[in-house]
Amino acid sequence: MKVLGVESSCDETGVAVVDASASGVPRLLAHALHSQIDMHQAYGGVVPELASRDHIRRVVPLARQVLGEAGLVLGDIDVIAYTRGPGLAGALLVGAGVACSLAAALGKPVLGVHHLEGHLLSPFLASDPPEFPFVALLVSGGHTQLMRVDDVGHYELLGETIDDAAGEAFDKSAKLMGLGYPGGPALARLAAFGDPSAFTLPRPLLHSGNLDFSFAGLKTAVRTQLLRLSNVCEQDKANLAAATQEAIVEVLVRKSLAALKQTGLKRLVVAGGVGANALLRSQLNAECAKREVRVHYPELSLCTDNGAMIALAAAMRLQRGAKPALNQGFDVRPRWELAAA
Ligand code: KG4
Ligand code: ZN
Questions:
Q1: Each residue's pLDDT tens digit, 8-33
Q2: Closest ligand 1 atom, CA of 87?
Q3: Range list of β-strands (E), the chain
Q4: CA 332–ligand 2 middle distance (angstroms)
Q5: Is 34 helix (H, G, I), strand (E, B) or coil?
Q6: What digits encode the pLDDT tens for the residues 271-304?
Q7: Residue 224: left if φ>0, alpha if ψ -120 to 50, beta else—which one?
Q8: Nearest atom of ligand 1 to the alpha carbon of 278
Q9: Ligand 1 pocket: which residues have CB below 6 Å?
Q10: Tens digit of pLDDT for each residue in 254-266?
Q11: Global pTM?
Q12: Which one of 191, 201, 219, 288 is separated from 27 by 20 to 30 angstroms, measured CA to CA?
């Protein structure tokens, strides 16, 4: 069974094809991605209308490219999957429109996929895929959640952010430091030259006794520190970047360990853009090794948004009996809880 996946929820257009047999992890045949980062950079963040228009330009050429790389033609595709939500409404409509029109023209069924489910399952495309059940730390630009995952579609929310997401904390702090967009990778690069102990930043909700997060206060603390300095030199910025990264990572690591303890599970999956962060990976690896917990990450290239995770999530749902729809009028869900997917 060949599944074509289309991702267009935010600022990356991704298309991919996976091949799935009745059981076993689906195999990625080809994937292609166009990032809109250069286009949005001038505005310091994603401009939704520009994002939608660019998805329109990119999606069909990308689909042609992946089919070519996989040595397939459209008629070989069995199911077409697309990101149904959450995300930017206009951007989602492009992927949904293309996927559903293509499916109608080909007489093939479609399946709408939850974007976070894509992230959550993306480590299954890595060379050392996880096994169920596991604790998942989902850290993307808009979400920070800890989940207990028993199987595809069996998600129990253990805790989540009550305000900003971890990725947002990276992005907003980076913006305050003038590091541009997207801030996470830029802040992480600068942090390598800084001394985190030069600034004391809060670890919000670290001792809350539950698995919720809060990062809005951290961004405010970064702003306060910047205002306190009369002249911000490059070393100050690097130190503040290092301190910010350390604060975010410490909270993510401590809460993940608490979730493992609470569930008694010995497996952790880290997914979403912030999962690319090297400090987060090294600290989680070290702490989990001490506790004999296995940690799984997606391939670095599949940490941020991509079509492969959407095709994969659809294929894994189909393996478990999901019924794709024929002639579906397309709909999107800009706001959508994963536990309700
Ligand atoms: O999962 P993702 O690509 O998009 C969403 O679904 O939101 O995540 C994007 C987020 C952004 O906030 C970005 O700054 C962050 O992931 N990010 C990083 C790194 N790479 C991407 N944050 C910290 N360190 C990184 N290396
Ligand atoms: Zn994402």
A1: 999 999 999 999 998 899 999 999 99
A2: 6
A3: 2-7, 12-19, 27-35, 79-85, 110-114, 134-139, 144-151, 154-160, 267-271, 294-296
A4: 16
A5: strand
A6: 999 999 999 999 999 999 999 999 999 999 999 8
A7: alpha
A8: 26
A9: 10, 119, 140-142, 167, 170-171, 182-185, 188, 272-274, 276-277, 304-305
A10: 999 999 999 999 9
A11: 0.93
A12: 288
Which domains does the chain show, CATH number per domain? 2-121+302-340 (3.30.420.40), 130-297 (3.30.420.40)
Nearest ligand atom owner, CA of 310: 2
Residues in CB range of 158: below 8 A, 6 or more apart: 135, 145, 146, 147, 148, 211, 259, 262, 263
Placement of tokens 């702003």 in the chain? 223
- Which pLDDT tens digit goes with each residue over 154-178? 999 999 999 999 999 999 999 999 9
Q: What is the pLDDT, as a whole number, of residue 137?
A: 98
- Calculate how far, in angstroms, residue 285's C-alpha sits from the geometric centre of ligand 2: 23
Distance from Cα 142 to the centre of ligand 1, integer Å: 9
**What's the rounded Cα separation, in Å, for the pair 62 and 10?**
16
Ligand 1: nearest atom to the Cα of 143: 7
The residues near 141 (Cβ < 8 Å, ≥ 6 apart) are 10, 165, 167, 168, 171, 182, 184, 272, 273
Tell me the CA–centroid distance for residue 270 and ligand 1, in Å: 12
Measured from the CA of 165, which atom of ligand 1 is nearest?
A: 12
User: To which residue do tokens 């189909």 refer?
Assistant: 318
